[in-house]
Amino acid sequence: MTDFFKTNRREVYRYMGLRGSAPEAAVEQMTEAVISELAESINAKFCARDTSLEINGSTICFETFSVQSSALAKNLSGCEAAILIAATLGSEADRIIEKYTIISPSKAVAAQAAAAAMIEQYADDICAVLKAEESASGFFLRPRFSPGYGDLSLDCQEDFLTALDARRKIGLCLTDGGLMTPVKSITAVIGKTRNPQSCHIGKCSGCKKLDCVFRKDE
To answer: Is the bond preceding residue 182 a cis peptide, omega within 30 degrees?
Structure first.
């Protein structure tokens, strides 16, 4: 589904902190090598499930759990159902990043950035597939919304993974400290609505954190 060799280089350099400036030749060469290594090694997987949806103020009730978030409630306003997704690049991406953390800090930065761009692109591609599938049933999909965005706490990650049976299906679980492992992974909720209004609004254009260093110009 996703050709990781074609990962958006602009996004990789943005994650490296090179936003608005072209990389030096040596940096570009190093980054290309890291992207190729990751693309050849990772084993990306995802799982998804439909869920019922009920919104009461800032409380969002899914089929098996509830969360508190005014931002998510706004994102899902007008939706009659939702899709939960989890996606991961797999443990090999973590291994490559850990390897370079030990032997080459500069390559570790490039690997972190490339993997971050890859998991975002993978999640976007999953959403594109789901969008095409849902359109046949007359549904439009809202932009995906992940724990950690706005006021949606990361504390709900365990509920997301349990609802998706993500550990069994794609090997995604949480550490004792509450971090996802493999690290380069994403969970998200996607609203389903019959009304296409506002479904074009992207994550950054809908976020009020204007000083975020990772903000995209959309």
So the answer is: yes
**Calpha distance 41→125 (Å, rounded):** 19
Three-state secondary structure call for residue 63: coil
Q: What is the DSSP letter of 5?
A: G
pTM: 0.90
Look-up of token digits 């591609």: 125
CATH 3.40.109.40 fits 4-193, yes or no: yes
- Tell me the three-class secondary structure of 179-209, residue by residue: CEECCCEEEEEEEEECCCCCCCCCCCCCCCC
- Segments making up each domain of the chain, as ranges: 4-193
Lowest mean pLDDT among 37-41, 47-51, 127-131, 211-215: 211-215
> Which residue has 């009659």 as its token pair?
80
Residue with tokens 């996703």: 2
Element (H, E) at 95: helix 91-103
Strands 140-141 and 185-193: antiparallel
Model confidence pLDDT, tens digit, residues 76-111: 999 999 999 999 999 999 999 999 999 999 999 999
User: How many angstroms separate the CA atoms of 119 and 89, rounded?
Assistant: 6
